[in-house]
Amino acid sequence: MERAILRHDPGLGSARGEERRGSIVCIGCAPLGLLRPLGRELLLVELPPDADGLAAAAARLDRLRAPDVRTACFTSAEPAADAVRLATEQEAELLVVADALPAGAPCDAVLLREPAPFEPRGPILAPFGGGRDEWPSPERTASRSGCSASRRRPSAVTRAAPSPRPRSHCSGSRASPPSR
Questions:
Q1: CA atoms within 13 A on the CB side of 32
Q2: For 117-125, what is the mean pLDDT?
């Protein structure tokens, strides 16, 4: 083994290269932009509670189907139990759910919440010192927040006056100089 390591034997890397990575099972969500770069097989699943929602869920999933994305849609009275069963059967490495984390998942489980769109409801603080080179920071913050130019009120942060008494990083009244 040591000689193979020293010779950089290509046979050593093949065992690790052939190792199969588990799939990612997504229940009730389709975070393709987030998960596709991982290079794993994705299984998108919809679990409507009754047959009335089955056709609409299947149509949503059909638009997302791709060579690296499989889809499944079936009715479920117990979505948490079915999520765990599906992750076990698929030997999933990651289970991504949109509603609630199921107990007893055989792999890592993630609760994915889509963020609500930002709605400006109050002031936004973008600290800056007021220097010419610092103005882009509050301007960028204001423009990204959707704040109109007429509602912006810049205010610079002033520096505190230096303390008359020097401060030491050591506890006590003063630090003694290092002895030689």
A1: 14
A2: 68
CATH 3.40.50.620 domain residues, the chain = 20-111
Distance (Å, whole) CA 73 – CA 62: 10
Beta partners for 70?
A: 43
Q: Which residue has tokens 């506890």?
A: 171
HSE of 82, CA atoms in CB hemisphere, 13 A: 16
Long-range pairs, 48-55, Cβ under 8 A, ≥24: 48/73, 48/75, 48/76, 49/75, 49/76, 49/77, 50/75, 51/75
**Per-residue DSSP letter, 73:** E
Which residues touch 106 (CB under 8 Å, ≥6 apart)?
84, 87, 88, 92
Cα 78 to Cα 22, 116, 180, distances in angstroms: 24, 27, 75
CB atoms within 10 A of CB 96: 25
- Domain 20-111 part of CATH 3.40.50.670: no
**What residue has token string 């929602």?**
53
94 backbone dihedrals φ, ψ, rounded to 5°: -145, 135
For 5-13, the CB contacts below 8 A with 24+ separation are none
What does the pLDDT look like over 73-117, one tens digit per residue? 999 999 999 999 999 999 999 999 998 888 999 999 999 887 666
Residue written as token pair 């204001």: 142
